Amino acid sequence: MANIPEDLHYSKDHEWVRVDGNVAVVGITDYAQDSLGDVVYVELPKPGEKFAANESFGSVESVKAVSEVFSPVSGEIAEANDSLTDAPEKVNTDPYGDGWMIRVKMSAPGEVDSLLTAAEYEDFTKGDTE
Amino acid sequence: MSEITKVTSHINANEALIFERSQPGRIGYRLPPLDVEEQAIETLVPKQFLRDDDLEGVPEVSEVDIIRHFVRMSTWNYSIDQGMYPLGSCTMKYNSRLNEKVARIPGFAGLHPLTDAEDAQGALEVIYELQQHLAEITGLPGISLQPAAGAHGEMTGVMIIRAFIDARDGEAGSAKRRTMLIPDSAHGTNPASAHLSGFSVKTIRSTPEGLTDLDHLRELCSHGEVAGLMLTNPNTLGLFEKNIQEICRIVHDAGGLVYMDGANMNALVGVARPGDMGVDVIHLNLHKTFSTPHGGGGPGCGPCCCTKELEPFLPVPRVVAQTSVGASDERHRLDSMPLKLRLDFDQPQSIGRVKAFFGNYGMMLRALAYIQTHGNDGLREATEAAVLNARYIAHGLTSDYDKPYNNPPMHEVVFTDKRQTRKGVHTLDIAKRLIDYGFHPMTIYFPLIVQGAMLIEPTESVGRQELDQFIDAMRSIAREAVDDPELVLNAPHTTRIGRLDEAAAARKPVLRWKPKAKADAAKET
Predict the structure, then answer these.
(1) Residue B147 is inside which H or E element, if any?
(2) Of B330 and B174, which is predicted with more confidence?
(3) What is the overall mean pLDDT for chain B?
(4) Percent of chain B scored above 70 by pLDDT?
(5) How confident is the model at residue B75 (pLDDT cuts 50, 70, 90)?
């Protein structure tokens, strides 16, 4: 059973968001990393780059496939987790912790409200597998 | 069984690297003494071109060492000449020896690529005639054989769309049309080709039946910026896009063009023509559909075929027939009179050259030999057999594996690992276990929209007996996944090397050999 922390927001593209004031921390969910399999490369944007909600901000390469990752919120990249370049396996081992991908200075913090709750995301992933 | 040490000159399952075979002073040549005064290399070659690093580790071997080394390793390959290769989406059909013989005819094989057209009429006739055949097969009259691979042909097609829209809409109008629509089931090369040609990609959803979602297509087209659609038909799920004419109409009404990825033409040749469906431009893979070798990534040939309307934008030079008045006549009948062929560079709207000379010519010879030996009826028969074989497998495996789409498949069929995952056995494990049964695995984890996908394409090259063997092997693996999952999880067991750590290989790749001392030093730092 995939781990879905209560205190996070989720997108239908399997990203999670942790709100920290005006900043959103974004990564991919436990369900996503499990579906992808062993992650071997993560491509992330540079600080200062701007993305609209649902826009692709990078990609995750696993032994199965290369997948785009989408920003659930609009804003400017404050920081990217560059440690994933040398240790992409963190996305598998700690998707909600050390495996975080970007910190976004949100331009429209209200967007978070339209994301899924943990319970909604759990239902969504069940629909995905049935 | 205890480990034994074989003498090195004997066939060894663990062949040493060529670097490790090195013996100081061994050489594979002997040159006669110079009959001029020997000069120091520094006096002949400018310093900046001289290597100044030491050549430590460059192997010192004899000719026979080299030959044996590579021949031994060649025996580790699995090839289409050894058995079934059901790699979905790749159409690994048997490559007939006759094609190889034709490609080696000295007059063709030895022809210099800079030979004047006047003196290379026979070679040009091969190109011209193959073009005529491909035009008839696709229903699209404009052809370039230059592209060297499928993705190359695809990009050529997309560049032609771009050039056509630039010419039709003018610079300002064209700048507003930069959206390429691509279904979520597409090959990854499609968005790459679109992006490289200056388009941004919007993804069309698939319906639960695995087909292009027409409502979503209409919605995306209504935004008004659509340059075109890139569609594979049958799509990568092996399903025929039965709404193809409606799809083309929607895109055309929105002012866009339809590009068809011809990767799956093995399901259509001799039966249905993309040109008749409303497609504007398509690429073919001679190395899939027309039986030329895939050969370790190349050389391939990915002809680009288009409508009369798009023809002026095809790459140059074009091989055209010359009539008595000097104008080209594409409809020239091959059997009516001897052709005079020439290279036409005078195509001002052309996107230009996309490959040196004329493309990978040897592939054209093989494809022409394939088409001519099959004939019209034979090509149709091959298509029907390819579809029948895939449906036979679809039927044979439905009881043991989850088949996510109910529609009858065309030339390939997709299954998933859904039933096996309950015991912890996944697609990768099933594929690895299949190796133990003597088959090359199917394509796995593609298409991306199918979780745990196994894409199986038997092609027309296998008979009933081999199909049954394959089905038996797959059903046996399904039983093993229940009775003895560890057996499947640790497969393969019968190969020279067991399960590889693919993640470690990708995360920490060792890309080159280093002398032991240096490798040790590198590890310490």
Answers:
(1) none
(2) B174
(3) 91
(4) 92
(5) confident
Residue of B nearest to A89 (CA): B507
**Closest-CA residue of chain A to B507:** A40
For testing contact with chain A, the best of B426, B450, B507 (most A CBs within 10 A): B507
- Do residues B194 and B215 lie in contact, with contact meaning Cβ atoms separated by under 8 Å? no
CA distance B446 to B187: 9
Question: For the domain B376-507, what is the CATH superfamily, name and number?
Answer: Aspartate Aminotransferase, domain 1 (3.90.1150.10)
User: What would the two tokens of residue B354 be?
Assistant: 């996309």
Beta bridge partners of B179: B200, B226
Max mean pLDDT among A90-104, B17-31, B501-515 falls in: A90-104
| Nearest CB to A89 within list B188, B502, B507 | B507
Option in A35, A40, A65 nearest B506 (CB): A40
Per-residue pLDDT band for A2 (boundaries 50, 70, 90) equals confident
Task: Flag whether A3 is in a domain.
Answer: no
Q: How many CA atoms does the CB half-sphere of A48 hold within 13 Å? A: 1
A16 domain residue, yes or no? yes
pLDDT at residue B349 above 80? yes
- Average pLDDT of the residues in B273-301: 90
Instruction: State the smallest CA–CA distance between residue A64 and chain B in angstroms.
Output: 6
- Rounded-to-integer distance, Cα B87 and Cα B167, Å: 41
- Angle at CA B444, nearest 5°, toward B443 and B447? 90
Counted domains in chain A: 1
Question: What integer is the mean pLDDT of B277-297?
Answer: 90
pLDDT digits (tens, 9 = 90+) for B413-429: 999 999 999 899 999 99
Min distance B310 CA to chain A CA atoms (Å): 33
Task: Tell me whether residues A40 and B503 touch, CB distance under 8 A.
Answer: yes
The C-alpha atoms of residue B158 and residue B38 are separated, in whole angstroms, by 57
Is B188 within 8 Å of A40 when comparing Cβ atoms?
no
- Assess if residue A2 is contained within a domain: no
Say whether residue B448 is in contact with chain A using an 8 A CB cutoff.
yes
pLDDT of residue B325: 45
Cβ burial, residue A21 (10 Å; 0-12/13-18/19+): exposed
Residue A101's domain is classified under what CATH number?
A: 2.40.50.100
- Stated pTM of the model: 0.88
CB-CB under 8 Å, B445 with A65: yes
Q: How many secondary structure helices (H) and strands (E) does chain B include? A: 15, 12
Question: Which one has a higher pLDDT value, B4 or A11?
Answer: A11
Average pLDDT score over chain A: 93
Asked, for residue A27, whether it belongs to a domain, the answer is yes
